[in-house]
Amino acid sequence: MPYVQNTAQDQAAMLAAIGARSVDELMSVIPEACRWKGKLEVGPGLTEDALVRHMRGFAARNVSPDGRPSFLGAGAYRHFCPALVDNLVARTEFWTAYTPYQPEASQGTLTTIYEFQSLMCRMTGMEVSNASVYDGATAVVEGVLLALRSKPKASRVLASAGLHPDTRAVLATYLRHLEVELVELPLDGGATPAAAVKGSEVAALAFQSPNFYGVIEDTKGLCDAAHALDAMAVVSVDPISLSVLEPPGALGADVVCGEGTPMGNEPWYGGPGFGFLCARMDSVRQMPARIAGETTDEHGRRAVVLTFQTREQHIRRAKATSNICTSQQLMALRATIWAALLGKQGFVDLGRTNLSRAHYAASAITALPGWSLTYPQRSFFKEVCLTAPKPSAEINRLLLEKHGIIGGYDLGRLDSARSHHWLLAVTDMNPREEIDQLVAALRSLS
Amino acid sequence: MTTTDAPRGNASPGCPAGGAPALLTIFEKSSPGRHGVRPPEAGVPAVDPASVLPTGAARRQPAELPEVGELDVQRHYTHLSSKNFSIANAFYPLGSCTMKYNPLVNEKVMALPGLGSLHPMQTDDQAQGMLELYWRLERLLADIAGLPAVSIHPAAGAHGELTALMVMRKALDDRGQQARKVILIPDSAHGTNPASCTIAGFQTRELKSDARGRVDLAALDAAIGPDVAGLMITNPSTLGLFEPNIRVICDKIHAAGGLVYMDGANMNAILCRTRPGDFGVDVMHYNLHKTFSQPHGGGGPGAGPIAVSAALAPYLPVPRVEKVGATYRIVRSSPQSIGTTRGFLGNSGVVVRAYSYIRSLGEPGLRRVSENAVLNANYLRARLKDTYRVWVDEPCMHEFVATAKGMPNGIKATDVAKRLIDHGIHPPTIYFPLIVPEALMIEPTETESKETLDRFVDAMKAIHREAESDPETLRHAPHTRSIGRPDEVSAVKNPRLTV
Fold first, then answer.
1. Contact B400, B442 (CB under 8 A)
2. What is the mean pLDDT of chain A?
3. Same domain, yes or no, for A263 and A360?
4. Which fold would CATH assign to domain B370-489?
5. How high is the pLDDT of residue B2?
6. Which of A23, A142, A234, B131 is the right S-S partner for A255, CB 3.0 to 4.6 Å?
7. Which among B10, B96, B108, B122 is the top mutation candidate for probing chain A, defined by the most A β-carbons within 10 Å of its own β-carbon?
């Protein structure tokens, strides 16, 4: 039987040492009335070869983005990832270890968490980062919960309609259970108007830049507007954009968070990715999830440990800052190694490749008849909302059927009034040839 | 490695074991102008950020990322990895974490073209294989739980707890039971249970365990009132004990108008032996990374599917996968659903591996999992109980809790744990559950061989002898790692959280 090593002889010797006649006797601690006598529908096990063949069947029933141009983003992006990332995270010492409860046996993981926190603070311009949370949507929620703990008298949260739709949905679910009022701020010309940031007893303003529609928000203006209400500014960012955009930490943000998957991870059909969450040092005791910190051992040697653990569920229980126990450490490690390999200049170059290609694509497509920028007065980084001459759904169908291209995100899937809006993501994974191929294909469809 | 005479290393204070080099982070290995891997070149006319971005929006100073060559990045992380214990190089009996073998074939299937690279915003017709896989795993998990409906949406065990508590809240509200705000939780529970209750808007009331570590029925009766929304119970418990009165307990909660939640962290012990839905549980979560053998990744990823009764099924989160005829589609809204609790459908990478693991084992394999998990734990219990007091000395399930209380020369659980590291064994979970002083919570899992278990017993006995003969060596253990015991107090007093 796979993965179990005990032989019949081993079992007999072990039962003798225990003083039991059979495993069934050991299992008799389960009361007779609770025992299950049925058989699972799963059937017999598969050999490794049969298993791989079975799993290939599922893979074959998907339309794989492998080997074909894809311009789909909408919150999940493909970016270049060096081969060495896969090689290093596959090391079993990283891959099969668990939460570093014993620092002497976990300096590897702890040091990488410390590096990850340093990396995220340098990218976002913030002072403290945790070791990761589940994903970008829950990172925003955790940022808002941090603000609610910091402003215990406040009972209201403002959230931009430019947040990713999943983030808005998750925020609504969590806040409903805490009886906090969630006020959604509609967009004006694709951006969150600072003038809409108003109200009393506001704990936080949450917004995303670039927002879901690709628009770069006025981060400083929005942070200032939040502070005028004595609210905290929770800013969700695409970490890749921090290569060319001023970090929110320099623009007044109190919490900077987001989906970390673009850094060294694949979309993996929605997960596992990871979320990051950075704040100011004066918020450290309100932070959720694990935090690593530097100290020394009893011989004075440099060491890294999990710290500020009195915030956490295993100590504080019902009064913990969060219920997070297991998060997404391996994915955060991928991001850390990815950033180390790109380095300071490589990260800048990567960002400029995204910016240049997205603008090249947008210029070429909007030169086609019937196409235009949906928000011509706004700026974008790697994703842009375009208005198409025919329904986005039809364009995507024709692109895939006739040209083998996965098109942009059809915004009509969210809102039937936006059936001609097309969210186009162009990254460092779309070389010029793919963009030219897309433009030619769109021309042939018009 | 010998287990009766653990290496000392160089134990003299001030002298690092084996002359280990001082720890340096990747940032401190940086040298200006160096680079690792070059990213793709634009290949189109370069756009100056300042020319297309609003005033003040362009980054003024580049982020100070490390500047290190590819080879030195490889060496750095290879070296760091060598400072970790992992399942492949050490026995890892971390109680409640189910550190079993992680089959590599599951990595191979996860990386198949069309599975690993699928984009979450692709339309349902482009993801039929993945959606079918979700649907099938839901069916398998429902069958194992004895509960009809499953959602694989939650990202981790504690996230499953939270999602399930939200399901309970919504169901109670729909019955006009808004006033029920209290969740009963045994004092042996994981800390995530009460923490999840708080985020879901519940209050918690702690239930004292009896002398045998079980729910005290008198205490339960006293705690049940009209404000009770339900009970969160871990079964088998964190003491590794099956709750003998589980049916009575469920009946009492139901009679009082509450719901029963089961923390499924310990499902490994009961696979194919008993089903939570059959003994009265309304809702439970799985930890796919524990029971179904996901690599734990140094702290994730996991996945925390929840299984619920038919009465609770309408409240499950969206998105959900639905089968219509021969095709699969994602349902994104549902009138009674609690809503969405994370981005996208789920941790698909974990879902694929868990499905693969269950299919490789099949029914006979899953039966052998619980059989050998229970046998291995009882074998360790039987062999250690004359040396270390077992807190509740009865047949256990997948794990048991011993205590270091009363060890010679005041040796503590932490000393035992640290000395095990010198024996090349990852320590058990210590100081948990909270109801056992100096707790050593030991879970061997089914994938360990008798020889490995025997080596562990030898090491534990050697440490006990050492507590008598050489307690100072224990108090300063470990002696064989790159660091000795770290000063956790100064880490908080003088926080250094970034390089």
1. yes
2. 97
3. no
4. Aspartate Aminotransferase, domain 1 (3.90.1150)
5. 39
6. A234
7. B122
